[in-house]
Amino acid sequence: MTGMNAWLFVHSEEIPPAIKPYRDFQKEKKLDSNDFSGAVFEGKFYAPGDFKQLETMPTRAEIYAKLLGTLNSPASSLVGTIQAPARELVMLLKAYVQKLEEESGGGQ
């Protein structure tokens, strides 16, 4: 390796937030945006052309949120389907009570 060299060590699994300060430094110093030799993450080597994949990787919290949203959607639909008959019965009973109140109030 020749020229200026820098090493970026990240001690978490949140890669995009860790890379942002480096990218800000590149912009501030007007450095070439592809001035690195590569990266290693979880035992896999990423060539300079593959580095974008690491930068756009979702955080663990984003992955969990998407997973929970996916898992929650069918459950919400099931609950709505199960509650629908009871909801309809309650609405029917309310309408019947209202009708009886109107009939008894109108006769006095």
TrEMBL record:
Transmembrane annotation, as ranges: none
Any single GO CC term annotated in Swiss-Prot or TrEMBL for this entry: ribosome
State whether keyword Ribonucleoprotein applies: yes
Q: What InterPro entries does UniProt report for this protein, alphabetically? A: Ribosomal_uL10-like_sf, Ribosomal_uL10_bac_type
Q: Which terms are listed as keywords in the entry?
A: Ribonucleoprotein, Ribosomal protein
**Does the keyword Ribonucleoprotein belong to this entry?**
yes
Give the record's family classification: Belongs to the universal ribosomal protein uL10 family.
The record's annotation in PANTHER family points to: 39S RIBOSOMAL PROTEIN L10, MITOCHONDRIAL
Q: What is this protein called?
A: 50S ribosomal protein L10 chloroplastic
Q: What is the species of this protein?
A: Prunus yedoensis var. nudiflora
